[in-house]
Amino acid sequence: MNDTIQILIAMVIYMAAVIVIGVLYARRANKNSEAYFLGGRSLGPWVTAMSAEASDMSGWLLMGLPGVAYWCGLADAAWTAIGLAVGTYLNWLIVSKRLRRYSVRANNSITLPEFFSNRFREKNKVIMFLAAIFILIFFTVYAASCFVTCGKLFSTLFGVPYQLMLIVGAVFVLLYTILGGFLAESVSDFMQAIVMLVALSVIVIIGIVQAGGLGEVVDNAREIPGFFEFFGLATPVVDANGVQEVSEAGKPLFGAASDYSLLSICSMLAWGLGYFGMPQVLLRFMAIRKEGELKRSRRIAMVWVVISLAVAVFIGIIGRQLFADAHLTKSAAENIFITMSEAYLPSILAGFVMAGILAATISSSDSYLLIAASAFSKNIFQGIFKKSASDKQVMTVSRITLLVLALIGILIALDENSVIFEIVSFAWAGFGATFGPLMLFSLFWKRINKAGAIAGMVGGAAMVFFWKLVLSGLGGVFAIYELLPAFIFSSVCIVVVSLLTKAPSKEIEEDFEAVRTGAVGESQ
Fold first, then answer.
1. Considering only CA atoms, which of 285, 314, 82, 52 is closest in space to residue 207?
2. Would residue 121 be called left, alpha or beta, if left means φ above 0 and alpha means ψ between -120 and 50 degrees?
3. Does 283 reside within a domain?
4. Total domain count for the chain?
5. CA distance linking residue 134 with residue 6, whole number of Å
6. Which of 102, 179, 327, 414 might form a disulfide with 333, Cβ 3.0–4.6 angstroms?
7. What percent of the chain has a predicted confidence (pLDDT) above 70?
8. What share of the chain is helix, strand, coil (3-state, %, to 5)?
9. Residue 209: Cβ-neighbour burial (10 angstroms; 0-12, 13-18, 19+)
10. For residues 449 and 122, what is the distance between their CA atoms, to the nearest angstrom?
11. Does the pLDDT value for residue 219 go beyond 80?
12. Considering the domain boundaries, does residue 83 fall inside one?
């Protein structure tokens, strides 16, 4: 049996397991819209933690982050990982309990737009509509990044055209999401988080052995100017097409190391701010069965995150020694995990490791599509246009929305030179700036009002686009990651507009105090 068939068999076994989970939970998931979109608030601490992190990290963890480390060295990847680890911890520590409590108080909200709308007791549903639209926009971009991962994975493994494999992967994700809903997605994400962690750990251990030990890896990395530094950056010498040049001896060429400024560090650390507005993580806080179990979930999540991020970064460093000239473009660098898996593992095991990438992709894209579909069907269709819509109608509209979003995501991902890291970074900034400040102020500032909430959402989203598309090209201070200035601008909009307009009603303030003091009740 040839290697390709063995890899394929292993991946088929894995996908079959995922489908079985979908089938097992399909009946419970389709009972009503709350069960489909939030799992009936029945998640335990392990599933809550692992599914939150698996859906958050996606194929970016196994391909995007190692690719960054492989291409330009330690600094960008490591500072990003540090920012994400800190952001993860703070989100679980200060947001999770209060959001779980507040979502119950806010008329048992089961989606993020619904929570914001009910939090401010709005009647005309402006906040709900805007939040749902932004979720549709940014999650479609996010889903596209997952489809790029599928396309690159299968194209690299089987030598099949990228676009065909992109479509095959998207169809599988779509069918699975339609079948099982949030509960199946969360349970399978638990399994996928384990697969991702094992896959990363196995490859990094084997890579170190093949490289001749940890010392050899470090020595090789230090030979490349700026490659193994926290305050420097390697600079690949590339031609007009972005392809790294190679010496006559076959060695990839690097220029002088670039300085890694405080501005660059702040830019990478700013990734951590994104967590406060990330719907796929925030929904897990709302879905856990008991508020008191969130502390255990936080500890589980942090262990997984720290190990996974550290190992993913180091895979890129190891890969640059073992396969120095294998990937000569920034986009191709994201295949280093696949290259190492195929080279050093028996084919059947390589297939299961490849399933780690598939796991990451599925765990994220089904979350993104499901949340985006719920934003339209539950918050726009039922919440605004047809308030009398039955649960059956909401579910039907949701599935139609899933199909449309998947098609748009495929169109965005058609370019096989797409860089996963760059696609994810834009969508991450969008969510972080649009919802992050609003979430924090909604949970911890009594004076925030509806006008301030709208200003914060619109201001944050607009600044992400403006900074990315207009200002970033100017270089200098404007080259900073757009999430940081947009997050600050959104926060300023919320405070200024709230203070200049009418204070919240007495009922809204009573809700806030009940949540702050814990009067909502643990049983809820």
1. 314
2. left
3. yes
4. 1
5. 42
6. 327
7. 90
8. 80, 0, 20
9. exposed
10. 10
11. yes
12. yes
CATH of the domain at 326: 1.20.1730.10
* pLDDT value of position 524: 42
Give the helix/strand (H/E) hosting 150: helix 126-158
Contact 244, 238 (CB under 8 A): yes
Best CA proximity match to 73, nearest among 418, 314, 327, 240: 314
Residue 513 in tokens: 């105090």
Could you report the per-residue pLDDT of 283-297, keeping only the tens digit for each? 889 888 888 899 999
Distances 236 to 70, 254, 258, 265 between C-alpha atoms, Å: 11, 4, 11, 20
51-71 pLDDT per residue, tens: 788 777 766 788 889 999 999
DSSP track, 205-264:
HHHHHHHTSHHHHHHHHHHSTTTT-SSEE--B-B-TTSPBPB-TTSPBPB-SPEE--HHH
Give yes or no for a contact between 456 and 437, defined as CB atoms under 8 angstroms apart: yes
Token reading at 273 = 């701010």
Pair 306, 199: CB distance under 8 Å? no
Torsion of CA 247, 253, 255, 258, to 10 degrees: -170
In a domain, 151, yes or no: yes
Q: Report d(CA 279, CA 139) in Å as an integer.
A: 9
Residue 250 CB burial class (10 angstroms; 0-12, 13-18, ≥19): exposed
* The residue type at 409: G
Q: Which of 22, 313, 72 is nearest to 175 (CA)?
A: 22
Please indicate, yes or no, if residue 243 is contained in any of the structural domains: yes
What tens digit of pLDDT does each residue of 382-434 get?
Answer: 888 888 888 778 878 888 888 888 888 888 888 777 777 788 888 899 999 99
Range of the domain at 44: 3-415
